[in-house]
Amino acid sequence: MQVDIRTTSVTQLRNTFSHVARRLGSDKAASRYQEATFDLQSTVNFHYRPLWQPELALYDVLRTQIEMKDWYAFRDPRQYYYGSYTIARARQQDVMEKNIGFVEKRGLLRDLAQVERAALIFALVPLRHVEWGANLNNSYITAYGYGTAITQATMFHAMDRLGLAQYLSRIGLQLDGNSGDSLAQGKTLWLEHAAWQNLRRLVERLMVTKDWFELFVAQNLVLDGLLHPLIFQHYERRASAEHGPALSLLTQFMTDWFNESARWVDATIKTAALQSPANETLLRDWIANYGTVCNDALASYASAVFGQDADIALAQIDAAFETRVAKLGLKGAEKAA
Amino acid sequence: MNNATQNSVFIAFQTNDDTRPIIEAIGNDNPNAQINRYPAMVKVDAPGRLVVRRASIEALIGRAYDLRELHINLISLSGNIDESDDEFVLHWNKN
Known about the structure:
The complex is a heterodimer of chains A (about 325) and B (about 100).
Chain A: H1 18-24, H2 32-35, H3 82-106, H4 114-124, H5 127-144, H6 148-175, H7 181-192, H8 194-207, H9 212-243, H10 246-250, H11 252-275, H12 277-306, H13 310-326, H14 333-336
Chain B: H1 3-7, E1 8-14, H2 19-29, E2 34-38, E3 41-47, E4 49-53, H3 54-61, E5 74-78, E6 80-83, E7 87-91
Antiparallel strand pairs in B: 1-3, 1-5, 2-3, 4-7, 6-7
Helix pairs in contact in B: 2-3
């Protein structure tokens, strides 16, 4: 019997979905990110208005003062959709688990002197409440924001913040020998210690900020842009100099994550500013306003942690933040920050 | 064999989601390259020289890229290889 092997090729009729093709300009192969992002949020056929806010539709562009012609202009430069996001984070989680195991096995934090452990607990553990606030705020943006392009990224960001809070808790558990005492102590510090109260007031104020884009600027650009470098660059460097790099192993994710997500935050702000001068003015005012507010909130915390070096540390993070804001192309915003 | 065939280099990849941005980057960086699509394979032919740039791929995929990742989906190639962190170049040594 004769067997002929032939290649048969089937040419597909269409390369992507019509709604994606319309955005790309022609029917060409689209990336997974594009297919998992463009026009996913429903825009029509809502029969009822929400009972809790009947003046607006379920998804409504009027929930922020920012105006966009196209809400899908907010592309994530990291191109995170569910698949790529979870794969990237799973890899980072593997590294972190190894680092935590390393520190745990050798008791690198557990065996520090009581004073040093108390100092680390004071500086880091209450921060899990800040991260939880950031989780809540990004969930709010996801719930009330408009368009999958930004809301899927803010949802990922919200989950990241929960992860950060958990890593901070695990630093606490390293310090108290897995008893959980440090977490209770951290909560008491957060609720009662004078150095944390301004920051707590700010976090709680952000939780009741109505305009979701304002909240995005306040939380993800300004507060994070000042607080994260203060702790995960300045404080971490100081702690390493004092008692070795054990802490740096446990904050590796925070540092990488900050640099990575800053790219997305900056791109989002830039996109909104490019849309119109009105947006630019709003953004500039928000950045200036929250820049002052955040600096005030950080002052007492910084002086408790850095002592007499607090002013230098704050001046350095301010300068770095000004440089970052200057790159966003919003003239004048960097002045007040 | 005529001169054009003698001088031409090629690189062939599997057709999938990972290689699509690579091929797009190669197409942008090598205006003379011809991209031939076959079932499950994309073969890029270029006269004389073909360059794969890390920066171009990174711009399309939005993350850091190591040019050695090319090999995961690489089917075949021809030419002498000149490889650095930033560029992967195929060409024929003249001497």
